[in-house]
Amino acid sequence: MNRGILVDEYLQTNIPDVFAAGDCVELRQPNAGRRAIEAIWYTGRMMGETAANNILGAVSGAKSPVRYNPGIWFNSAKFFDIEYQVYGDIRAQLPEDQATLYWEHPGGKKSIRLNYDKASGRILGFNLMGVRYRHEVCDKWIARGTPVEEVLQQLGLANFDPEFYPQHESELVALYNRQTGKSLKLKQKRGLDAVLAFLR
Amino acid sequence: MEESISLATPNPTLTSGKQKIALALAGLGVLLLLVVWAAGNAFAPVPVLSASLGLICAGVWLFVREEYLTRPEGIKNNGVWFKSLSARGIWGWLAAIIITGFYTVLYFFPENWLTGLTALFSPVSQGLRGKPADKWFVYGSLYTLSVLVLGVKFMYKYRHNRYQLIRTVSVMFFQTGFSFLIPAFLQVMNEPEYYFTYFWPLKDYYGSPGAVQYYGHATSLSVYFIAFSALMTFVGTPVLTYFFGKRWYCSWVCGCGGLAETAGDPFRHLSDKSLNAWKIERWMIHSVLVAVVLLTGLLWLNSWQQGGVLGKFSQAYSTAYGYVLGMAFSGVVGVGFYPLMGSRVWCRFGCPQAAILGIFQKKKSKFRITANGGQCISCGNCSTYCEMGIDVRHYAQRGQDVVRASCVGCGICAAVCPRGVLRLEGAGSDIDQRTEQLRTVHIRLEDVKILS
Ligand SMILES: Cc1cc2nc3c(=O)[nH]c(=O)nc-3n(C[C@H](O)[C@H](O)[C@H](O)COP(=O)(O)OP(=O)(O)OC[C@H]3O[C@@H](n4cnc5c(N)ncnc54)[C@H](O)[C@@H]3O)c2cc1C
Ligand code: SF4
Ligand code: SF4
């Protein structure tokens, strides 16, 4: 025990055959860029899955244990009636080496933030209020370190809002152009076929 | 009384003073209809009908504004499991008995049981169709009125959601235009009554030799009516379902769906989500499809043989099908059981059109409900409010797209999801693999041994 129940990368405690998962856990060796205690729902689920697998595997001896790997950070919540999603690395204080593109709807209930690396332009994270983006698309962009300008031009791939909802991708591109003097164009509109091709 | 601060508060959700007045107004309007019905006399039809419908509309409108506009927009299903009407309490049962009773009288009792109401609606009927009302006109009027008034209520409730708004305008439009006004105007123009939004097999008659014979010759135009129906059955249905899924019909056009989506909305959570219900549903709906195919086949065989084979039998079969499915199931049970089994009893267990659309939707359609990556928190709202009894959560929490024959694409699961996990959409490039990806399950089932 420390601040949580200490577990190894297989979620096993120091007592053999005793595992822990969820809010109570403190990882001895978290992945790079991740914290030892991440008390949120999604990590809880992934830990549960991993622990269950390792318990069953260990007991039956059928297979080697699986390491706990939560992948790229994501979370979501709902504040009153406003949905919130986050994908990737979004800090409360913008680090020196990061830049941000922040768009807000005039109605005040929607906003989109894209954070990227100042030097290389690599996309680092998305923060969304009242707007839904596709998890896997954002995940793949972040994992690949896709340049923010490519992300902006392809931004339709990420749109996950319901049908008939206004699409704001071109407003983001326009905002970026205004702030940087570039003249990017939105090349990819919303559409599942394009998403499937991108993810394949 | 101590107020509970629990999220699932057990405190009764009370109606406000304004809402009580609104309910009284609407109740008075309904009472007027009941008095006319019981008295068998409309007294002065125009003022009485105007007063009754005016009171109902005003009452519902006032109630709904107070209910939804006093709160921020967004999903408001507060207390549905605690209110008597929507939780199979006394009011729920009473509503079920009254609606079932009304339908029984309508379908199975002689016309003169409804003389008061037919007299009441006669001026409207004269104005629209140039002839006095019969009980079907009364029924059509009340049905359309329900779709319109409760459609407006639905739109207040889901006013933040454009998909729901547009879809509801669509069902209100098709019900009023194509199931009420156009059939009436056709009669004024001396054309036979026709419903362009119903096709075989839901309207089994339109696929029968009798209908082809009749509409083929009735007037110079009517042959196109029946040709349109045939086109919709054989071409329109598969093509539209390929592009949009079953929803183009079931939750955008159909009148039965229209009533379920509007009047039935407060009861949608009552649908049975069990595996058993799903099994029964598949047996029932496909049996009805087989029954209607047999029926139509027999009628055609009989007409080709000029009554040679099974002459009387096929007629008796047709009559029985009409009574059991057309009336008892789709009407009495279909609507009467809203407060007991949810709003889509007929659509889910009985409708042969839904069966066919479902087969297309499952086998060859772009449509699916996408689950967004690993975002589901297993809260179960989607399953709760699915009127077709689909356990949407089962798919969502595995990150699996939902492809189910019964899904009518109402979009409510997506609307109630607190995490925005679900999206109704379509793609042509992966139709046969729509459901294969499990986005959040990182461990293969084969790798896990279940200890017995
Ligand atoms: C207000 C709030 C909002 C949140 N919002 C979000 C969000 O938007 N997004 C997000 O990802 N996460 C959110 N979280 C975090 C998320 O809810 C938790 O991370 C998650 O529920 C933890 O799951 P768990 O199974 O690890 O623990 P828990 O859900 O806490 O389960 C622990 C269980 O153990 C039981 N228990 C405790 N002691 C004993 C005992 N001695 N014997 C037997 N049983 C015992 C408890 O009764 C409980 O059922 C939020 C948390 C809170 C409190
Ligand atoms: S799965 Fe969703 S869209 Fe389909 S019927 Fe159920 S609630 Fe409606
Ligand atoms: S409503 Fe949304 S979060 Fe809740 S179980 Fe369904 S998909 Fe998951």
Helices and strands, with pairings:
The complex is a heterodimer of chains A (200) and B (452).
Chain A: E1 5-7, E2 25-27, H1 41-60, E3 74-79, E4 82-88, E5 98-104, E6 111-117, E7 123-129, H2 135-144, H3 148-153, H4 169-180, H5 192-199
Parallel strand pairs in A: 1-2
Antiparallel strand pairs in A: 3-4, 4-7, 5-6, 6-7
Chain B: H1 17-39, H2 45-68, H3 90-108, H4 115-129, H5 135-157, H6 162-188, H7 209-217, H8 222-244, H9 247-250, H10 255-262, H11 275-304, H12 311-336, H13 338-341, H14 345-349, H15 352-363, E1 367-371, H16 381-385, H17 392-396, H18 412-416, E2 422-426
Helix pairs in contact in B: 1-2, 1-4, 2-4, 2-5, 3-12, 4-5, 5-6, 5-10, 6-10, 7-8, 11-12, 11-15
The complex binds flavin-adenine dinucleotide and iron/sulfur cluster (2 copies).
Please provide a written account of the structure.
The complex is a heterodimer of chains A (200) and B (452). Chain A has helices spanning 41-60, 135-144, 148-153, 169-180, 192-199, and strands spanning 5-7, 25-27, 74-79, 82-88, 98-104, 111-117, 123-129. In chain A, a hairpin with a 2-residue loop joins strand 3 (74-79) and strand 4. In chain A, the strands form 2 sheets. In chain A, strands 3-4-7-6-5 form a 5-stranded antiparallel beta sheet, covered by helices on one side. Chain A has 2 domains: 5-60, no CATH class; 74-199, 2-Layer Sandwich (Enolase-like, domain 1), CATH 3.30.390.30. Chain A is elongated. By secondary structure, chain A is α+β, with helices and mostly antiparallel strands. Chain B is an all-alpha fold and 452 residues long. Chain B has a domain at 366-451: Alpha-Beta Plaits (2-Layer Sandwich), CATH 3.30.70.20. Helix content of chain B is 59%, strand content 2%. Chain B has 18 helices and 2 strands. Chain B has helices at 17-39, 45-68, 90-108, 115-129, 135-157, 162-188, 209-217, 222-244, 247-250, 255-262, 275-304, 311-336, 338-341, 345-349, 352-363, 381-385, 392-396, 412-416; strands at residues 367-371, 422-426. Chain B has a two-stranded antiparallel sheet. The longest helix of chain B is centred in the middle third of the chain and has 30 residues, at 275-304. Chain B starts with 16 loop residues before the first helix and ends in a 26-residue tail after the last strand. The chains are: A alpha+beta (200), B mainly alpha (452). At the A-B interface, helix 1, strand 3, helix 2 and helix 5 of A face helix 6 and strand 2 of B. One iron/sulfur cluster (SF4) binds next to helix 18 of chain B.
